[in-house]
Design brief:
Radius of gyration: 19 Å
Helix content: 25-40%
Strand content: 15-25%
Strand order of the largest sheet: 1-2-10-7-8-9
Number of helices: 10
Number of strands: 10
Distance between the termini: 42 Å
Structural class: alpha/beta
Largest sheet: 6 strands, mixed
Order of helices and strands: HEHEHEHEHEHEHEHEEHHE
Length: 310
């Protein structure tokens, strides 16, 4: 499926944009047996932290900017605005730096220091909103700034180029890397772009694939995993693609993040650990299943949260 990007063909060397995607798919070795998953199951993690800006959001970020340029909606030098909980903001800051845009990011003030610092390192301007307002307030402010003529909102929550990126790249990669043997796909649900795009692709080539979404249990705050109020449900979300929702607690996600680092050598973010916890719960009920989950980012972005030992 993969082919050399045009710029790489022309020059012999890829650009940073060319190396987004084509991430490894790795097998968990110790945790499935320790947590009682029957033999015959294979649990695989898609290492999206290997992308240049460090997360699965690199794919839709470059897709949204590139496609908006193709439609003539934006051009280099314009100001782009986005509400973000972290990873999309970092990816958009990188993509804006690559393609020559001013990037203004709006995020709740309680999100990790590392993510805010990374956005600024790419040259983005940050507006922090009160913790109590959550992402809903950040999204409202972004829309208000667009109405006031202060820039254009790409809107990851309603932009079809978000799931399209995963339909065209992430899904085909997982299909190819599993040799078509995948039976279950698990993803944390935030903007829902990943689960919608990958789920659509996998079901288009193998309708029997089960798509499972990880959502936070009541009272849990897990960066990157959301259960939206009805008024803020992402417009790109397609519930027909998701066969099952599994609730994961903050404590289970954080414990799984620590265990993955200690027992698998896999240092991941908390939402990735939540998706892994769901994959392992599924595996305890199944036989001869091939379960792939999205490792959406790396653990370095969460060191200041206290989840990992100091």
């Amino acid at each position: 499926m993969s082919h050399a990007p045009e710029s790489a063909v022309q020059t012999g060397y890829p650009t940073i944009e060319d190396v987004i995607g084509r991430t490894p798919l790795i097998r968990l070795q110790r945790l499935p047996g320790e947590l009682g998953a029957p033999r015959g199951n294979v649990i695989l993690g898609k290492l999206e932290g290997n992308n240049p800006a460090g997360s699965v959001k690199d794919r839709p970020a470059i897709s949204m900017i590139r496609r908006a340029e193709e439609r003539g909606e934006i051009r280099p030098g314009d100001t782009l605005i986005e509400a973000t909980s972290g990873n999309t903001g970092i990816a958009l800051a990188m993509a804006a730096a690559i393609r020559g845009y001013r990037m203004v990011l709006i995020m709740p003030e309680d999100l990790s220091i590392e993510r805010a610092q990374t956005m600024r390192a790419y040259g983005a301007e940050l507006i922090l909103t009160p913790r109590a307002g959550g992402m809903e307030h950040a999204r409202d402010l972004a829309e208000q700034m667009q109405r006031d003529g202060k820039g254009r909102v790409l809107d990851q929550f309603a932009n079809a180029d978000n799931p399209r990126a995963h339909f065209e790249s992430t899904g085909p990669e997982i299909w190819e890397q599993t040799g078509g043997r995948i039976t279950h796909f698990v993803s944390a649900m935030g903007t829902t772009g990943t689960i919608t795009g990958v789920g659509r692709y996998l079901k288009s080539v193998k309708p029997a694939v089960r798509v499972v979404g990880a959502q936070p249990a009541e009272g849990s705050r897990i960066p990157g995993i959301r259960k939206w109020p009805e008024a803020y449900l992402p417009k790109i979300h397609d519930p027909s693609v998701v066969d099952e929702l599994v609730l994961v607690s903050q404590a289970d996600a954080e414990d799984m993040a620590r265990r993955l680092a200690r027992e698998e050598g896999l240092f991941v973010g908390i939402s990735a650990a939540g998706a892994c916890w769901v994959a392992l719960q599924l595996a305890r009920q199944l036989h001869d299943a091939t379960i792939a989950f999205i490792v959406c980012d790396r653990g370095e972005r969460y060191l200041s949260t206290g989840v990992f030992p100091a």
